[in-house]
Amino acid sequence: MTFAHAAEHRGASPSPDAASPLAAAVLRVRGTVQGVGFRPTVWRIARELGVLGSVCNDAQGVLIEAVAPPAVLDRLARRIRVDAPPLARIERLERLPSALPATLPAGFVIGDSRAGQVRTAVAADAATCMACVAEMLDPGARRYRYPLSNCTHCGPRLSIITGVPYDRAATTMAGFPMCPACAAEYADPADRRFHAQPIACPACGPRVRLLDLDGGEFPVAAGAAEDACDAAGALLDAGEIVAIKGLGGYQIACDATSAEAVARLRALKRREAKPFALMAASLAAVRAWCRIDDAEAAALLGPAAPIVLLERRADAPDGGPAPGVAPGLGALGFMLPSTGLHHLVLQRMRRPVVLTSGNLSDEPQAVTREELKARFPQGIAAVLDHERPIARRVDDSVLRFIDGEPRLLRRARGYAPEPIALPAGFEAAPAVLAHGSELKNTFCLLRDGQAVLSPHRGDLADAATLADTRRSLHELQRFYAFAPRLQACDAHPDYLSTQAAHATAGVVVPVLHHHAHVAACLADNGWPLDGGAVIGVALDGLGLGADGELWGGEFALADYTRFERRGSFQAVALPGGEQAVHEPWRNTYAQLVAAFGWDGFEARWAGLELHAFLATRPRAVLDTMIARQLNSPPASSCGRLFDAVAAALGLARERTAYEGQAAVLLEAVVDRDWLAQAGPADGLPFEMVAAGADGVARLDPRPMWAELLDGLARGTPVARLAARFHLGLAQAVCTMVQHVAATPGAGTRPVALSGGVFQNAVFTACTGRALRAAGFTVLGHRRVPCNDGGLALGQAAVAAARALATN
């Protein structure tokens, strides 16, 4: 992690000898600069320029001591930035003059690592690069078909590191001594494997084997397979379920075209309907099933190799994936091979495979074969295993292009824990540990104007996830010698993350859920600390509000220190509380009763199938619960409005199988052809109710419901009504933003969009177009998720800003 601090002075001014054309300087490079080939890159540039001196790793990054004419030193600094290796992220390059040494260095060398207080970054894991893949597929190369091939441009980092600086002794490769050939590559600055800490080959590296769950060799008939990876591919081709040890945990695979295999995998994982991720051998194989533009292709091929959500092709050969892969959805989540094991398996298994985490739903991914067996004592035919231990779990990242921009929906492998440079003004902030949210938890370490957001942890209600999160937090604090002065958390007292913050000895700073959402968006966009307030729009499922009620559709004037609520969705009861999250029809009933009363609904729309369904529900019980507010808290939730509309249209009515399913199905069914031709007035209408005594205007969905129900009565296609809802809601958001902008002192400020609802590509694109047409600048998430996975960054930024404001 790059934690910038005061620059180091290593001597006095340059020698006053005017006859000497040489000068000395110390260059300090901070950022993700260890384990990525940075030192050999500096060595190569310095030798080309004739610079004398050295480069080494230390606890703060990379340190360069250079002697050359001043103009050459200038070129050295420029070249370091321009020619940095692909996985490097330079956050700061500091240059200070130094005294010329009494004896000039004989050349330029790479020095040993130095210890010290940790200020450098832990690099993210990276997918196997094409140079290593080419070697792996070359029969003449000594690493032919060796699946753990890597170099300084690729391979494991976070998943194997046990300490810093990042050297082999501080990784899980410490137990594998290098053979002479690997040692020679490791020691040669001109080799792309120079100081590649996981370097290995068939002679000295971890073995790769095909095993049964008990650790015994899986029987493979003589001549039936070339090696373990080939045998695993053959099993997949035959319809079996196979576990594969990936970079950050075990994964489970099956043939994505086999309905029977996919059904068995769903039963094995107890995963009823949530979509599975897919892996294909090549970009061409992905194109056969999905539409891909150049930006999406670049994301798939990049070193992070995330899962990218792509539009499904209707004309896929042989019908594309089995229906059970992504039931009811128009998008597929595809990734390309991230390790040599995946490349070699897919050489034999030539069709895309389902590749899902080795866990039961909502549990953490297994990182040992023993954990895998405990979760799946039967049902897995074989395990493609290797001997390199995994130091910590790292899930796959998920990315989607929304409103023309790449947006991370889950930040993990390939991205985390790379540091996020905070905007101007945060340099002097105290160290803050932010504990994040209950769902999609991440935590954040903030210090010296930098933030490290942990990889995706999961939902803390699961005991194993909570324990794994606590362990990961302890490890990262140890790596960075991180001692926070402030503990930031959600304002909800019942969140386990909040309780963890209060269990510490530090000063606790509670942050409103939706304030943290907006602050995370500001930090993601580099909004300066003194940049003033923006119009924040936070739309999600639920979060505790300042008035003690449940919020989820909020409009505010907000900056890093304040959140002034100016608008909201009309609050509607959640009959059954948590049950309403899982049974969308409850939200539909509450919305319709709030809008029309049951008698009014029945009088006008008794002929609808929706009426017949709701009439069979326990209405009297629900009416009593709502009237007396018995386990039926009012909530201004935009997420629950999506659920209610989806249930009304018959898409997800009685029960959802996973979080957000109703909203996902509602987006999937949208008539995109109609939407592309529609104008702003074609959306379903909302009414804006003027602010009352609390100064908060409300968006009332009553007219939207009336027109949607009339549309159902007329037989309007569900896909058209879904499109009209998305368009109308986007226009309503724009109307409320304009109202907030018209309030005294507001002005036409940028609009920051945050919250899980903005994972919806259709709605977000419609909202962005409407706001830009109205003259607003739109800020959306890019590097951190708009969902609760980004909350920790927002909490940390708010706590730091408040501390700075009081100093």
CA gyration radius, whole angstroms: 28 Å
Number of helices: 24
Dominant shape: globular
What is the number of E strands?
A: 31
The CATH topology of the largest domain is DHBP synthase
Compact summary:
The protein is of the alpha/beta class. It has 24 helices and 31 strands.
SSE order and pairing:
Layout (H helix, E strand, L loop, with lengths): L22 E10 L5 H12 L2 E7 L2 E8 L1 H13 L6 E10 L9 E3 L19 H7 L43 H8 L20 E4 L16 H10 L4 E4 L4 E6 L3 H11 L7 E3 L3 H5 L2 E2 L2 H8 L5 E6 L18 E5 L4 H9 L4 E5 L11 H7 L6 E5 L11 E5 L2 E6 L9 E2 L10 E3 L9 E4 L2 E4 L9 H17 L6 E5 L5 H7 L4 E5 L1 H12 L9 E11 L5 E9 L4 E7 L2 E2 L4 H5 L1 H22 L3 H7 L3 H10 L5 E4 H11 L12 H8 L3 H6 L9 E3 L7 E4 L1 H13 L3 H25 L8 E4 L6 H13 L4 E2 L11 H16 L1
Parallel strand pairs: 2-5, 7-14, 9-12, 11-15, 18-21, 21-22, 23-30, 24-27, 25-29, 30-31
Antiparallel strand pairs: 1-3, 1-4, 2-3, 6-14, 7-8, 8-13, 9-13, 10-11, 11-12, 15-16, 17-20, 18-19, 19-20, 23-24, 24-25, 26-27, 28-29
What would you note in describing this structure?
The structure is a single chain. The protein is α/β, with parallel strands linked by helices. The protein has five domains: 23-110, Alpha-Beta Plaits (2-Layer Sandwich); 122-205, DHBP synthase (Alpha-Beta Complex); 208-386, DHBP synthase (Alpha-Beta Complex), CATH 3.90.870.10; 416-518 and 787-806, Nucleotidyltransferase, domain 5, CATH 3.30.420.360; 569-746, 2-Layer Sandwich (Nucleotidyltransferase, domain 5), CATH 3.30.420. Strand 2 (52-58) and strand 3 (61-68) form a beta hairpin. Helix 15 crosses helix 21 (702-714) and helix 22 (718-742) crosses helix 23 (761-773). The longest helix has 25 residues, at 718-742. Mean pLDDT is 93; it is low at 1-20.
